[in-house]
Each structure stands twice: as structure tokens, then as C-alpha cells.
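Sample intake sheet
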Amino acid sequence: MAITSRVTLKAKACIKCRMVKPNTNEFFPFRKGDVLRNECNKCNAEYHKGWAEANRVRSREIKAKYAKANPEKHRGDIENDNRRSKEWREKNPKGSKLNIRKAHLQTTYGLTLEDYDCMLEKQNGGCAICGTTNTGKHKNFSIDHNHTTGKIRQLLCNRCNWLVGVAEGKKELLNSAGHYIERHSTYDYQI
């Protein structure tokens, strides 16, 4: 009869990053039962994040299935996250708005706040079309971009951004509107 015993190591090396870490659940996640994985929590999280980005549809399906099967856990996570976010925003009102702005610029346009400020400085602090320094109903100038290619053009006030948006791809419409304004500014049109 063979006697088998488990030897518990005090530390082990992650098979991915090769860092030696304590052999505890704090550093190595459980696989199944009480067996610890061979990659550390950090490497495991990076792997899962990469997989989720590469398989977005499947990842959403899995999350939705989990949420449906565990409504009490899922709802608790959302409420907890919302509560923590609200508490942080209350403690950091200015930082919160700034972080939201930074995230919006980065995710939507691939710009940093410094890039935006540099663009605005190159335009002498005004709209690229009309030159006004008044941003209109928004706090910041709009970032005009080509909706087909995503390429950023310049910063515009709300009115000029609306004008470009309506007339984009219709150069003859802008020319016609220009002639219309010119025609009516030189003489009164009689009916």
C-alpha cells in the first residue's frame, strides 16, 4: 500500500511571470476545490481581461447568464459598486468630473486632456470656423471628427459643430446656403 502525502510549499513561482510568491489564496487563486492555480492572481486577471476583450460577445453572454442565475449576487454587486462610486464622487466632486472628462476624451477620441488643451492653444482658444471663444451651451468646445474615418479635425463651438454635422458630405448645400445669405444681405427680396 502506497502512502501519499501532500507537501505544501511555503512559496511558489508563477508559471507566467516567474515571480516567487507565498503559496496562499491571496496570491494564487483556487482552481477547483482546494487546489491553487499555477499562475498568480495578477497573471490570471490579465489573461481573463484579454480573453474578455477578444471575445466580447461571449463574455457578455456569460455575464448575463451568471446575472440571471444569481440575481441576488449580481444585484448586490451593482448596488455595492453604485454606493462606492457615489461615496467617491461626494468626496471628490472636482476630481470626479475631471476623471469622467479624461475617460470620455480617451475612449471616444483617443485624446488626452493635454492633447485637447494643445489643440485649443493652436486655435488661439477659439472655434476653428468662426473664431469665437464662447463654447455655446457646452462647457468645452466640440471635437469635430469625420464620422466615417474617425479622424479628428479641429475644435468647434456648438453652432459650428451643428452646421458641419448637418452639411457634412453636402458641399453644394453649404455653397447654396452661402449664396442665399449673400443674395438676401445685398437687397430686399420682393414677393
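Comment: The two ends are 112 Å apart (CA to CA). The first helix runs from residue 41 to 54.
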